[in-house]
Specification:
The chain has helices at 3-20, 27-45, 47-51, 57-77, 82-96. It is mainly α and 100 residues long. It has a single domain (3-96), classed as Orthogonal Bundle (Helix Hairpins), CATH 1.10.287. Helix 2 (27-45) runs antiparallel to helix 4. It is flat, with a radius of gyration of 16 Å.
């Protein structure tokens, strides 16, 4: 699946869940939920250091996915195409750091 399609599908899922649970999403709610998910990812990543056990791959994947869903929704709220934004950033970094 192309990134543009994936972003659109992610936004659709967030919108569907918001309708199901009668959530009125705005940028502040979306951002704070995304920060919450980043915290959950950090907790999973820190398990080896803090709890002497390996991170669970399924949990890691789920947390990365949650972040992507909310990032996609935030990008849509700001009228940003993630694929274009990342491509432009990669080009800028290559030029800035003379990697090409």
């Amino acid at each position: 699946m192309e990134t543009k399609q994936l972003q659109k599908k992610a936004v659709g899922m967030v919108d569907t869940l918001d309708r199901k649970f009668s959530v009125e999403r705005d940028a502040q709610l979306n951002f704070t939920q995304m920060v919450e998910e980043v915290g959950e990812l950090a907790k999973e990543i820190n398990l080896p250091r803090l709890r002497s056990r390996d991170a669970d791959k399924n949990n890691l994947e789920g947390e990365f996915a949650d972040i992507f869903l909310l990032l996609s929704k935030m990008a849509e709220m700001c009228n940003v195409d993630l694929e274009t934004a990342v491509e432009n950033k990669l080009k800028a970094l290559e030029k800035r750091h003379m990697l090409v």
